[in-house]
Amino acid sequence: MHTIEICVGSSCFVKGSNELVELLKKYLEEHDLEDKVQMKGAFCMGQCSKGLGVRVDGKLLEGVTLMNAIEKIENELNMII
Ligand code: FES
């Protein structure tokens, strides 16, 4: 089981982390990944000034925004699944 952590800290919430959770839920459903990938909330990852805090299997992704998040997560998943 792989894990995607999404920061639910206040700065990321303002930037749309709750919307990202919904987008990601849909993505995992559409790609039949629900039994391979789990989603978790996490505390601040120190990315507040750079973008949204997202970790895939413990690896912090850089420069994540609501617009590019799914693409960045997909790239990362393609490398590990
Ligand atoms: S609040 Fe999300 S990285 Fe700081």
Structure description:
38% of the residues lie in helices and 21% in strands. It is α+β, with helices and mostly antiparallel strands and 81 residues long. The protein has a single domain, classed as Glutaredoxin. Strands 2-1-3-4 form a 4-stranded mixed beta sheet, covered by helices on one side. β3 and β4 form a beta hairpin. It is globular and about 30 Å long. 21% of the residues are buried. The mean pLDDT is 97. Bound molecules: FE2/S2 (inorganic) cluster. The site of FE2/S2 (inorganic) cluster (FES) has 10 residues, from α1.
List keywords for this structure.
single chain; 81 residues; Glutaredoxin; 3 helices; 38% helix; 21% strand; globular; binds FE2/S2 (inorganic) cluster
Radius of gyration: 11 Å
Provide the spatial order of strands within the biggest beta sheet: 2-1-3-4
What spatial form do the alpha-carbon principal axes imply? globular
Q: Specify the number of helices.
A: 3
Helical fraction equals 25-40%
Would you list the SSEs in sequence order as H and E?
A: EHHEEEH
Summed over residues and divided by their number, the pLDDT gives a mean of 97
Return the CATH class: Alpha Beta
Distance between the first and last residues' Cα: 10 Å
Structural class: alpha+beta
Low-confidence segments, given as residue ranges, are: none
Spell out the CATH superfamily.
Glutaredoxin
Supply the number of structural domains: 1
